[in-house]
Amino acid sequence: MTKNQTKLFVLDTNVLMHDPTSLFRFEEHDIYLPMATLEELDNNKKGMSEVARNARQASRFLDEIVSRVMTDIDEGVGLESHGAKTATGRLFLQTSAIEESLPASLPGLKADNQILGVALHLKKKFKSRSVILVSKDINMRIKARAIGVEAEDYFNDKVLEDTDLLYTGLRELPQDFWESHGGEIESWKDAGRTLYRIKGPLCASLYANEFVYQEYSQPFYARVREQEGQSAILETVKDYTHQKNNVWGISARNKEQNFALNLLMDPEIDFVTLLGQAGTGKTLLTLASALMQTIELKIYSEIIMTRVTIPVGEDIGFLPGTEEEKMSPWMGALEDNLDVLNKTDEEGGDWGRIATHDLIRSRIKVKSLNFMRGRTFLSKFLIIDEVQNLTPKQMKTLITRAGPGTKVVCLGNISQIDTPYLTEGSSGLTYVVDRFKGWAHGGHVTLQRGERSRLADYATERL
User: Fold this and answer.
1) 241 located within any domain
2) Interatomic CA distance for residues 47 and 57, integer angstroms
3) Are residues 404 and 278 part of one domain?
4) Is 158 inside a domain boundary?
């Protein structure tokens, strides 16, 4: 492949601060770093935030690449020997001042405009080569296109281009399913559940712990226990919509909630992700199953709840008190759901209810995400709320905290992302749903129907 066929990507600082490994993600293409990008990296390296950590990591990568250079740096540095072997392009650094005349409307002192000036200069210098500015900043991309420079977002961290294609964890079986897959069917009972071994073309596309259903005259709800080639084992699900199977007084109100409770109440499932709009019951179902398995069944020793602390409006400043007290304003959802779960115990009267509430609160610990690094949780039920605001790297940090006997449940709604530079396609929630699908000890359900109130349902639909 000749140099004219490979592209030259000019990187904006926010790409490196979003993903330091982006240096090694452009395959056979070359990368150009303007001096303004390096200056901005330097300005953002202080602090304990994720952005500062990424800026420092990007600087370390650059130091490692440049420090081994034996040749003239103007000729570029090969990336193949440093990062993933897939990066076969070269890294170029701006080594001299570029006096590119930008339009009068773009003053040259601003770092963004200096980067645009460099991109414009390279476009004129390499006429036969595609020069593209890569930036996470929408306005920067608009400005680049306005002055005739090609620009695009950084796509490499996106798990999916279209989140409508995201794995939902459930699948409706076609009407002729039993005719086409029931030829060599085997059936047997195990611990009160019926299992079916089926063979047919649809089996190849099923995932372990995916839920399958038919809503015809006789509804059929099952979970894929095992899948191998053209055969699969289906297990009928426990019916949590029936009051006799209630979990801490809570019954499922629709099939998705029923499927979610089947995952939450199964001690063999170590990792659960629940995705859904506001009011679909994610937190309530998770807390109910956590209390049942911690206080009644004693499978777990404690419930740990945490969430991302990103305010929707203006920040209210520093909060007083201990870690738990600082987190309490963020844990309104926990208190609201505990009120609902506590009302299910009507027999004990007010005194009984107060005693139950105190017992429950003593078994729930509220932790901040900031202090999770280096910890290991043993036999805990770990609930992470608002996961859509985490990056894939933060998700990895949290999920790897789980020790033996710990169950991790991630809750989120990818249409409510408050973190800058994160999109539905690159959110940590999308990332883990896609990477964990088909694992024998993990499960996912996308909850569809809001069960909060008719007002909330109407607002979700119309506003």
Assistant:
1) no
2) 13
3) yes
4) no
Q: 134 phi and psi, to 5 degrees?
A: -110, 120
Phi, psi of 338 (to 5 degrees): -65, -35
Please name the helix (run of DSSP H) or strand (run of DSSP E) that holds residue 381, with its range, or none. strand 380-385
What digits encode the pLDDT tens for the residues 178-217? 888 877 889 999 888 899 999 988 999 999 999 999 987 7
**CB neighbourhood size of 300 (10 A):** 22
CB atoms within 10 A of CB 2: 7
Residue with tokens 């993600």: 25
Alpha carbon distance 402, 396 (integer Å): 11
> Angle at which helices 111-125 and 35-43 pack, to 10 degrees?
160
Q: How far is CA 182 from CA 156, 189, 204, 235, 401, in A?
A: 42, 17, 15, 15, 43
Torsions phi, psi for 132 (to 5 deg): -125, 130
The beta strands (E) that lie in 256-299 are given as 271-276
What's the rounded Cα separation, in Å, for the pair 23 and 61?
8
| 8 A C-beta contact, residue 254 and residue 449 | yes
Q: Which residues pair with 445 in a beta bridge?
A: 274
Q: Give the sheet arrangement for strand 8-11, strand by strand.
A: 77-78, 90-93, 30-33, 8-11, 131-134, 150-152
Largest CA distance in the chain: 82
Q: Tell me the pLDDT tens digit for each residue of 231-275.
A: 999 999 999 999 999 998 899 999 999 999 999 999 999 999 999
Chain CA centroid to CA 141, Å: 25
Residue 219 is encoded by which pair of tokens?
Answer: 């509804």
Strand partners, 222: 212, 236
162 burial via Cβ count (<10 Å: 0-12, 13-18, 19+): exposed
Give the list of residues 6+ apart from residue 352 with CB closer than 8 angstroms, or none.
Answer: 345
Name the domain count of the chain: 3
Domain ends where: 97, 121, 152?
152
Q: Do the Cβ atoms of 235 and 188 come closer than 8 Å?
A: no
What average pLDDT score do residues 287-296 get? 93
Q: Tell me which residue range forms the domain holding 372.
A: 247-462
Q: Which residue, of 213, 236, 259, is where some domain finishes?
A: 236
Amino acid at 461: E
For tokens 């990062």, the residue is: 83
Examine residue 126 and state whether it is found in any structural domain, yes or no. Answer: yes
**Residue 450 belongs to a domain:** yes
